[in-house]
Write a structure and sequence with these properties.
Elements lengths: L3 E5 L2 E5 L21 E5 L4 E2 L3 H10 L2 E4 L5 E6 L5 E5 L7 H10 L4 E5 L1
Length: 114
């Protein structure tokens, strides 16, 4: 992983391709040379295209859904201290969220360029 670390509103995040994503976090118009990231469920080689798909995969891996925060989708695994927090809107699901899922579910998910 390479890129630029950006600090904004008290949050630090990694911008993997600084030319493709503005530093203010806003979305640019689609560009043909910009590769977007996708989350892939490795055992089935399935690209995760919705939170419904992701929830099915996570529940099968022992994750439980938390309903504490109405603005987030959260999952917790009882045997660990891990918590996955995702924006409620799938359109705001970015590579930082994908990598969080990959790290907490080794060998089950990958982030790939599309």
């Amino acid at each position: 992983m390479s890129g630029v670390w950006v600090f904004k509103n008290g949050v630090v995040r990694l911008v993997e391709n600084p030319g493709a994503e503005p530093l203010d976090g806003s979305r640019q118009g689609s560009s043909s040379n910009v590769r977007r990231k996708v989350l892939v469920h490795v055992p089935t080689n399935e690209v995760i295209t919705s939170y419904e798909d992701l929830e099915i995969k996570l529940l099968s891996l022992g994750w439980e859904r938390y309903y504490n925060d109405p603005d987030l989708l959260q999952f917790h695994k009882q045997s660990t201290v891990h918590l996955i927090s995702l924006p409620k809107d799938f359109n705001r699901f970015k590579s930082i969220h994908m990598y969080d899922i990959v790290v907490k579910n080794r060998n089950m998910f990958e982030v790939r360029d599309m």
